[in-house]
């Protein structure tokens, strides 16, 4: 049995706290925040999340591919209703905390009136703490609400399911599970400049080993500039929406030219005048066009790229008509 935390409620009015990794901030995560807000509407909603991913610390080199970076995770949590996001630095030392120490060091300083978590929540050294443990440790100090996983078409929504869909290149299913298109974000870097030479200039993003990217292939989607500037780097008027364009997106290593670096390369349709080097951009994946292919030569590659652009245009136009 776990020893109950020795604590008394302070003079602080309290808070409602939700805890989790929240990678991707999918509908299941957002439901936890919504229930917390609805249950305690008069209290500040504090989200506790962890960085880096606990699995990457407990099993170095074995953590999952991340769906979002920390900045995007915090922004998505705030958009979902969090008043404050507390990021816990997950270290080897932190991983050794017992469940009681976790409650004492992480939760009690937030003065929770209620803690809301998914029913599969685990905490403390070797994930020894369960929902029942949390209720026992919080007895007389805070209430605990455990929620089942949200389902999409009878499939439980979880970050692992999203990662599996992304890894398979099924970006449409990933979007269903996320409640929005899968997004890959980064700063545009100079590549080989081969695309420009072939008539298809691309905005190139390297794929860090720690982050998820769709299976190698070509996709239809959108490129959005996130730094408040237009395609030429000119600041947009205050309040103007972010500049965004339809794009044919290639994910892979460019095997026709024996490339090695894994990249997300986006060709914006009908635009050869954009200056995006050094820009913070987001690439939203709409649907898969084809898998990665190594071509026998440049002519065959250009012919296929023309076909990819046509397929991308048709796919995005079709989807736009369905949305109306």
Automatic annotation (TrEMBL):
InterPro entries: FAD_synthase, Riboflavin_kinase, Riboflavin_kinase_bac, Riboflavin_kinase_bac/euk, Riboflavin_kinase_dom_sf, Rossmann-like_a/b/a_fold
Catalytic function, reaction form: riboflavin + ATP = FMN + ADP + H(+); FMN + ATP + H(+) = FAD + diphosphate
Classification via Pfam families: FAD_syn (PF06574), Flavokinase (PF01687)
SUPFAM superfamilies: Nucleotidylyl transferase, Riboflavin kinase-like
Domain Riboflavin kinase: 177-317
EC class of the enzyme, as a word: transferase
Keyword line: ATP-binding, FAD, Flavoprotein, FMN, Kinase, Multifunctional enzyme, Nucleotide-binding, Nucleotidyltransferase, Transferase
Highest taxon above the source species: Bacteria
Record EC number: 2.7.1.26, 2.7.7.2
Biological processes annotated in GO: FAD biosynthetic process; FMN biosynthetic process; riboflavin biosynthetic process
Pathways involved: Cofactor biosynthesis; FAD biosynthesis; FAD from FMN: step 1/1; Cofactor biosynthesis; FMN biosynthesis; FMN from riboflavin (ATP route): step 1/1
GO molecular function, one term: FMN adenylyltransferase activity
Function of the molecule: Catalyzes the phosphorylation of riboflavin to FMN followed by the adenylation of FMN to FAD.
PANTHER family: RIBOFLAVIN KINASE (PTHR22749:SF6), RIBOFLAVIN KINASE/FMN ADENYLYLTRANSFERASE (PTHR22749)
Similarity remark: Belongs to the ribF family.
Name of the protein in its database record: Riboflavin biosynthesis protein
């Amino acid at each position: 049995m776990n020893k109950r935390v020795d604590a008394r409620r302070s003079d602080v009015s309290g808070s409602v706290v939700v805890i989790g990794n929240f990678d991707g901030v999918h509908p299941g995560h957002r439901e936890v925040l919504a229930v917390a807000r609805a249950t305690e509407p008069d209290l500040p909603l504090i989200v506790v999340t962890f960085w880096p991913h606990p699995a990457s610390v407990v099993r170095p080199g074995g953590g999952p591919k991340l769906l979002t970076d920390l900045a995007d995770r915090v922004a998505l949590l705030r958009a979902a209703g969090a008043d404050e996001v507390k990021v816990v630095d997950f270290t080897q030392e932190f991983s050794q905390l017992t469940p009681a120490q976790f409650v004492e060091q992480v939760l009690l300083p937030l003065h929770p009136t209620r803690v809301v978590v998914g029913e599969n929540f685990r905490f403390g050294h070797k994930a020894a703490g369960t929902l029942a443990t949390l209720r026992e440790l919080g007895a007389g100090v805070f209430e605990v609400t455990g929620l089942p996983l949200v389902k999409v078409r009878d499939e439980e929504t979880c970050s692992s399911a999203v990662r599996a869909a992304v890894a398979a290149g099924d970006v449409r299913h990933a979007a269903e599970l996320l409640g929005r298109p899968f997004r890959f974000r980064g700063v545009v870097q100079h590549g080989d400049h081969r695309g420009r030479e072939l008539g298809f200039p691309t905005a190139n993003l390297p794929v860090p080993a720690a982050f998820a990217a769709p299976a190698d292939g070509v996709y239809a989607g959108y490129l959005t500039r996130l730094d408040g500037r237009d395609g030429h780097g000119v600041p947009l008027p205050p309040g103007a929406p972010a500049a965004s364009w339809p794009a044919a997106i290639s994910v892979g290593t460019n095997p026709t030219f024996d490339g090695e670096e894994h990249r997300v390369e986006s060709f914006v349709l009908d635009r050869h005048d954009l200056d995006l080097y050094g820009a913070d951009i987001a690439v939203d994946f709409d649907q898969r066009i084809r898998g990665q292919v190594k071509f026998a030569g440049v002519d065959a590659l250009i012919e296929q790229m023309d076909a990819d652009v046509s397929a991308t245009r048709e796919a995005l136009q079709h989807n736009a008509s369905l949305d109306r």
